[in-house]
Amino acid sequence: MAKRRAQVSVAQGRWTGVALDHQIQPASSNPVVLNGQALAVWRGEDGPVRVWEDRCPHRGMRLSFGFVRGNTLRCIYHGWAYGADGQCAEIPAHPALAPPKTICANSYPAETRYGIVWTTLGDGASGPPDLGPDEGWEGVRSLFVAASAEAALTALARFDFGAGATTRMLAGDIVEVSFGPELRMLVVVQAMDDERAALHAAAKGARATEERAALAKRLERLRADIEQA
Predict the structure, then answer these.
(1) How far apart are the first and last CA of the chain?
(2) Cα torsion 179, 185, 191, 195: sign
(3) Among 155, 158, 141, 156, which residue's Cα sits nearest to residue 201?
(4) Counts for the chain of helices (H) and strands (E), in that order
(5) Do the Cβ atoms of 5 and 20 come closer than 8 Å?
(6) Cβ–Cβ < 8 Å for 82, 72
(7) SS3 at position 38
(8) Helix 149-158 vs helix 212-228: angle between axes, to the nearest 10 degrees?
(9) pTM of the model
(10) Hey, CA dihedral for 21, 51, 226, 155, is it positive or negative?
């Protein structure tokens, strides 16, 4: 296996993978932490994934605790509803009131590529990294580790994925693992805070479906290596 010793770091303004696309089910809201920022990652009944600050503008309740109706996200506290653009669409206690435009959830850019949901806490101008064709990727699994993102990346770059596997660092917090011409895996490291990280893996190739369980087991071994380091 090609091993690479490299200085690694996770920039806060970079686009980062925060979930696998298939994990974010229609009509669901999910909590995520990126660089210490609490986020609500949600999907309407028939729309794309959206990433918002995990805070209702009304009383600060976590929107990830809320519920989705159609393509609106409702706060579980008082039921205030927010449309796909983040604007408050309804205040149940005052049904005749048109909510002021100043009441708006704080949203972040979000895109799905390579079977992974990406976002950035920056301005989002550049978009997610270009890693080649987007078709054919399927999620393997996400892992959460008790280690910094930098420690996770260092361990990931050195990990032995098995005979014939080659590992190389891509853009910043992304590692590509190749298992020959018929199987390729991307592993994206998400910095949660100084002591926690998440790893999101997706695979592509003729053997991706049949090897999914075996890849997940290798990632479990990787987690053990990271936390023992």
Answers:
(1) 20
(2) negative
(3) 141
(4) 2, 16
(5) no
(6) yes
(7) strand
(8) 120
(9) 0.90
(10) positive
Sign of CA dihedral 221, 5, 12, 126: negative
Give the pLDDT score at 124: 75
d(CA 6, CA 32): 28
Query: Confidence band (pLDDT; 50, 70, 90) for 14?
Result: confident
- Residue whose tokens read 């949660």: 192
Tokens standing for residue 14: 């970079």
| Strand partners for 39 | 32, 53
| Amino acid letter for position 111 | E
Give the separation between CA 114 and CA 119, rounded to whole angstroms: 13
**Residue 6 confidence class, pLDDT cut points 50, 70, 90:** very low
pLDDT for residue 172 is more than 90: no
Neighbours of 93 (CB within 10 A): 8
| 8 Å CB contact between 128 and 118 | yes
Q: Which alpha helices (DSSP H) does the chain contain, by range?
A: 149-158, 212-228
Separation between Cα atoms, residue 119 and residue 108, nearest integer Å: 7
- CA–CA separation, 82 and 97 (whole Å): 14
Q: What is the pLDDT of residues 53-107, one digit of tens each?
A: 999 999 999 999 999 999 999 999 999 999 999 999 999 999 999 999 999 999 9
